[in-house]
Amino acid sequence: GRAWHLTARPHGWPAPDGFALREEPVRPPEEGEITVRNLHLSVDPYMRGRMNDVKSYVPPFRLNEPMEGGAVGVVVASRAPEFAPGDQVLHGLGWREYATLPARHATAVSGREAPLTAYLGVLGMPGLTAYAGLLDAGGFRPGDAVFVSGAAGAVGGLAGQIARLKGASRVVGSAGSDDKVRLLTEEYGFDAAFNYRSGPVRDQLRDAAPDGIDVYFDNVGGDHLEAAIGALRTHGRIAVCGMIAQYNATEPPAAPRNLALVIGKRLRIQGFLVNDHKALRPAFVEEVGGWLRSGELRPRETVVQGIENALDAFLGLLRGDNTGKMIVTLDGA
Ligand code: NDP
């Protein structure tokens, strides 16, 4: 099977020549292991951090080895009692066609309740990120006015819709194209949205939320964060989910320059990692699963076909080619 290797660590924007799609032997399972043929791969912004050789909350990818990431696939060989060939599983060895792993690192999933790709998006890590970020880190309460950046992406689109469904007084989003802005207001039910490329975020946020905001769900950082600090009301909260505007930067960002406002407004800035919020998973599955069944929550996906295009899918994600969750579907899935 083929697998994507990182061959050189990027400085700034990753270039395709730092990656290679290589043929690898498929290792047969040992006792307690399964071999999976992957059907769908996830590409996610956090993978950019794993390409750097710095200690973080996840270890860096190793050079000239398959990269890792979320994937769903079908078991083709098993030496574990939990799974038989034909079973479908979610696991962490993406970026490749075949994966052999301990059965305890795989979770059974079923395409009957939701499409398999949902376990990489709305019912998976990005969905829980949106739910936990808004409710735990953001301390959201019904009646809050909420601003979400990266709002047409996987996490942001769900964070804004969850805020609406849980009784936000106003939901405002920003995204990088006019088409995405239309999606936010016309399909996701945001009250207002703007294209951050069309003018200063500060001015556009002021127009979209003239009475200010109570919660800022930050996916972007930089000038978005600065604008949000300006717009937040007293005792407002910032859930710092990501800062994608600086993942490829080679210099530290200039903003936020107005951080001292945090004092007088008594703001709370709370970073969070989805993996710390697994206790919320049952409530998340119950509530989000219900909104999916009722049609009140509309998840979107952008699907790129073929493992040979997985790197382009990842690079496209960093540029904003995706609407909703970016998925790579392998041939034969
Ligand atoms: P998205 O689906 O949102 O894809 C990334 C999006 O970022 C692109 O579509 C693009 O949309 C936007 N973007 C890229 N560059 C910029 C920029 N300079 N300024 C503003 N927007 C930009 O990805 P995810 O939903 O998977 O992730 C969203 C955020 O959540 C990321 O910051 C990620 O790191 C973070 N995250 C954090 C987790 C945690 O545990 N804390 C877990 C999962 C994700 P556009 O066209 O609008 O520019």
From TrEMBL:
Residues 14-328 form the Enoyl reductase (ER) domain. It comes from the Bacteria. The keyword Oxidoreductase applies. SMART domains: PKS_ER (SM00829). The keyword Hydrolase does not apply. Keywords: Oxidoreductase. One of its GO terms (molecular function) is oxidoreductase activity, acting on the CH-CH group of donors, NAD or NADP as acceptor. Pfam families: ADH_N_2, ADH_zinc_N. PANTHER family: PROSTAGLANDIN REDUCTASE (PTHR43205), PROSTAGLANDIN REDUCTASE 1 (PTHR43205:SF7). This is Enoyl reductase (ER) domain-containing protein.
